[in-house]
Each structure stands twice: as structure tokens, then as C-alpha cells.
Automatic annotation (TrEMBL):
MF (Gene Ontology): transferase activity; zinc ion binding
UniProt keywords, alphabetically: Transferase
One Pfam family cited in the UniProt record for this chain: zf-RING_2
Protein name, per record: Ubiquitin-protein transferase
Amino acid sequence: MAAAPADVENPLLAADAPADVEVELAETGGGSGGGSAPAFEVPEPLEREEPSAGARRGRRLLRLLNVSDPSVLFYGACLVNLPQVVVLACVFFFEWDADLDVCDATARAQWRVWGFFHGLRLAATTVVAGLRWRFAPRPPPDADRASRRRYLVMVTNARNSLDALALIWFVVGNMWLLGGADDSCAEAGKSPIYVTDVVMLVVQYGQICLPCIFAIAMVPVFCFCLPCVIRLLASLHDPVAGRGATKRDLARLPTVPYSENMELLKGEDPCCSVCISDYEKGDKLRVLPCKHLFHVDCVDQWLSVNATCPLCRKSIFVDDPEEPDEEAPPEAADVDDDDDAAAPAGDDGVDAARVVASIT
């Protein structure tokens, strides 16, 4: 009897079959012979797709969670600092002479001096946070990048000076408002200016202690629910604004069954660089545009958060044609170094401390 045609024996090889299935079946047929490696084509870098509505919502939420983002720092400074400045100005204007018979003149002068300079520092911190947002580097390289970088350096130096002043003035406030060794001023609570100063000092205590409390509360979460945290970050990550890949992007990358004599694995250890496990017969490997191969499950989880090769760090997407290849990276690196020095990312403790210093 005549043998059935190949396309009848393998209906999955029809034109409407998924690309991954076609590659896998073709390579399985080629590799089942006398030890010949399966033939496949290395994919070209992918084109990014427009973000979906869910991705845009995730981007906005993720931006709110990014405590080193200049816009988040500015809005946080406005939310915390401006109400204190307004209340302090009103108390000084309406209650300046309301405590002339309370305590001695030295104590009253200390309350007024501390409150005045504290409010002035809060206003200056808010202005500096707004300037840092104004001169922060934008995603597309602009023409005034060099001047923006110079202004950003000056704003960063001003912010560091205000952070140092905040710590010094915090200690002075404890000495003048809470550090009295005698009971000569037992009626200090009758002074509206004194009460306002103490409330602002308590707010400063809360801003300093809140990141520590949050870090301690997150220890059990990271110890026992780390996979949940990773999945949450992956689901919130915006593939277009960040560096992650969507499921549709991953489906466009071909898969190939592992073979001992694969051309791309010659001269390399036959193991996955993500899970550090040796490849075994029947394992499905994902082929990246950089010609590196990994376990499908391993590299898909990696690419969903960071769309670069775990080995060579090359992106799976096409580079932006508007970005220069030679001149932009050094300048961009300089701006990033200055920005990272001002607000380092990747360390939750440092980021939280930076938020406190920026809005206090």
C-alpha cells in the first residue's frame, strides 16, 4: 500500500498551525535521524506593540510605587510640606502676640526661630523637588540635554544641602522644644506657636520612623511570599515604558527541542543559565535573537520582567532608531550616574530614606 502523504500524517503542520508548533515538529523530525541537529532559524529582534489599557493602568500604578521617581517625590513633598507651611504662616500671622505672658523671652524666641526656619526649609525643599522633576532626563534624548544635566547637578547639590540641614535642624528642635532640663516653663502648652512647632516635630519623627516600620513589616513578605511579590511586579510592569515583554511577544520567539549536537550550543555548557540545570532530551528551549537558548519556562519568567538576554544583556526588541548609537550612551551614562547618585534605585532601604529626606 502507498504511504499516506506527510501533510495528512501531521495535520498540525497546516498553514494555520502556531509558529512554535511548526518549528518544534520540523526540528523533531530532523533530530530523530542519525544524530543530525535540528535546523531552525534565529529570530530577528521584535518590534514593540502598543500597550493595552491594562498595561497603561499598571504603568501608572507602578510609577506611584517608584519612590525614586522625581514626580512622585515632588507630589509627596507638596502633600506633606505645603500644609505645614500654610498652617505655620497662619499661626505666626494671627497668634504672634498671643503668648507674650507665657514662659520667658528666650524660650519664646527659640520657638519662633525654629518654626520660621523650619517652614522656610520645607518651602525650599518643595521648590527643589519641583526643579529636580523639571530638569530630570526625559526618555527621548532632547537637544538641551547638556544644559539639563548641568541644572540637574546644581539641583541635586541643593537637595543634599537641604537634607543635611534637615537633620541638624531636627536635633536643634529636640533641644529647644523637648530638651528643657528645668521646669521654669511649665505653661509652654498655652502658646499656639509652641504647639505648632511640636506638631511639626512629631510629623518629622513619623517621616523618619515610617520607612523603618515599613521595611520591618516587609521582611516576612519577602521571606515567605517572594514568588507572590515577583508575580505582582511582573503583572504591574509596563512592557513599553519598562523592559518587560508581553505574552504575545514571547509567543513570537521560536522554540526548539534540545539536541546534543545543536549548532548554537557548540563550545558552550549545555545548561540553562537561569536555573543552572543541564539540558535533557525533550526539553523545550526558547531561541532569542542573540542566538542564546534557555528553558522556555525559565526565560519567559525572566523576559516578562526584563526583556534582555540573561547572558549578553542584549534586548529582544529592535533598538530605537532615533537614539544615537555612539554619542548618546556616554552622555546618557553621565546623566544616569548623577541621577543615581542623587536617588539610587534598586535598594528599598535607600529609596525609602531618600523619600524621607526629600519631603521633610
